[in-house]
Design goal:
This protein has 384 residues and is of the alpha+beta class. Helix content is 29%, strand content 27%. The chain contains twelve helices and 18 strands. Helix 4 links the parallel strand 4 and strand 5. Helix 4 packs antiparallel against helix 5. The N terminus is likely disordered. Bound molecules: adenosine monophosphate. Adenosine monophosphate binds next to strand 15.
């Protein structure tokens, strides 16, 4: 082949250095974040590192306002205010799952919203969520939906067939153990249901789990999937206290958990980081893994990834919503993430002195009981 022709061919393949691949938001684009809490703050920090600007929209001023380039206060049902926000950003994401679905749907008429409204609609209602997960053939704890007061008796009859006690959970707006009541014996159900406001609820069998784990899965715009190593989670009073990696669980169980999370993310046509919480019942259980719930956002049990992985969950969420390729989820260290709840954070001077402790404080003004004020990631050399 004559030399000139070869040169022409190779020239055709070379992309100019400044060309932006289709679908990727370039640096300086504005990532819109719904929600002003600590997750929004850490998303904004990760976005900033990649050269993006951020605009946070919240119904009150939270820690994310301290770091975002722009912020708006407005209710999530103020469509005029949401329109202004939509016009100021290039893509919208959210940091909490109780953003009204109508807000996400409305924004989606003007700007891309990732993850989409479908994930919100499913995660906001425990009845819809459990039906959805079970519909995918993924095991969940036995449950009975109480959609109206008339269905209470039927749920009670179902619970009578269970070997262990139950938990009543409101279908909507429950988090960190709120909106839940333990049900020890039959007579308690009607009282607990009334105490929770006689609202649609799920009566769930209390399962004797060996461990609680979660999977942080990230899915790109192109459908690429990546998972982080599986943390073992410990709760106290319904609030996550600590996440540990490696979990110490059998590898095949972790692999199964990861594949369940990927299946859910794909079924939702999800973009971003999704948290999937599971119960591990032990190797002899008929179903060793049950999905407890999903969180369509970055997740507290993934905070260790900020310091123990090549690319943490916050950056990977931003990469996904910006249409970028996913970053490596490789874990280079063992890690224990401890939440600083309420006045735990008052010990920051001692924590700041601890070698190997990576301290994250959210800068909230007031420490209240049960309030997440920060977290500490303690790293050690990778054992497995
Ligand atoms: P949730 O709000 O559903 O994540 O529940 C908060 C915590 O309550 C979980 O992390 C578990 O520690 C506990 N819990 C929830 N559901 C069950 C269940 N069906 N069986 C046993 N423990 C549960």
């Amino acid at each position: 082949m004559p030399q000139k022709t070869m040169r022409d061919m190779s020239r055709k393949k070379v992309r100019p250095a400044n060309a932006i691949p289709a679908g990727m938001l370039p640096p300086r684009s504005v990532i819109g974040i719904l929600g002003s809490g600590q997750l929004g703050k850490m998303l904004a920090q990760a976005a900033s590192r990649l050269g993006f600007r951020t605009h946070v929209y919240g119904d009150d001023a939270g820690p994310a306002f301290d770091v975002a380039g722009a912020h708006s206060i407005g209710s999530y049902t103020n469509f005029a205010r949401l329109d202004e926000f939509a016009d100021a950003v290039d893509v919208v994401t959210y940091e909490f799952e109780n953003v009204p679905v109508q807000a996400a749907e409305h924004l989606a008429t003007r700007v891309r919203v990732r993850p989409g409204a479908k994930a919100l609609a499913i995660a906001q209602d425990r009845i819809v969520e459990k039906n959805f997960i079970r519909g995918l053939g993924i095991p969940v704890a036995p449950y009975a939906a109480i959609e109206t007061p008339e269905t209470l008796m039927a749920a009670q009859r179902t619970a009578q067939s269970w070997a262990t006690p139950a938990i009543l959970k409101t279908a909507r707006l429950g988090y960190d153990g709120k909106g839940q009541a333990p049900i020890g014996h039959d007579g308690e159900l009607a009282t607990a249901y009334r105490a929770l406001g006689s609202v649609p609820s799920v009566l769930e069998q209390r399962v004797a789990f060996r461990a609680e784990i979660s999977v942080l899965v990230v899915r790109g715009v192109d459908g690429a999937l990546a998972t982080y190593d599986v943390p073992r989670n410990e709760h106290g009073g319904g609030i996550l206290r600590r996440s540990t990696v490696p979990s110490g669980l059998p590898q095949d169980i972790e692999a199964k958990a990861r594949s369940i999370a990927c299946q859910i993310a794909a079924a939702l046509d999800y973009v971003g980081v999704l948290g999937v919480e599971l119960f591990y019942l032990g190797p002899d259980a008929a179903e060793p893994l049950l999905v407890n719930e999903i969180a369509p956002r970055v997740h507290n049990s993934g905070h260790w990834t900020m310091d123990a992985c090549n690319v943490g969950q916050f950056e990977n969420h931003i990469r996904a919503v910006a249409g970028w390729p996913l970053g490596s989820t490789n874990r280079h260290s063992d890690a224990v993430m401890a939440n600083l709840i309420g006045h735990d954070a008052d010990h920051w001077p001692a924590l700041a002195r601890e070698p190997g402790a990576c301290l994250h404080l959210y800068g909230k003004r007031e420490a209240r009981d049960g309030r997440k004020m920060g977290h500490v990631n303690t790293l050690s050399p990778k054992s497995s």
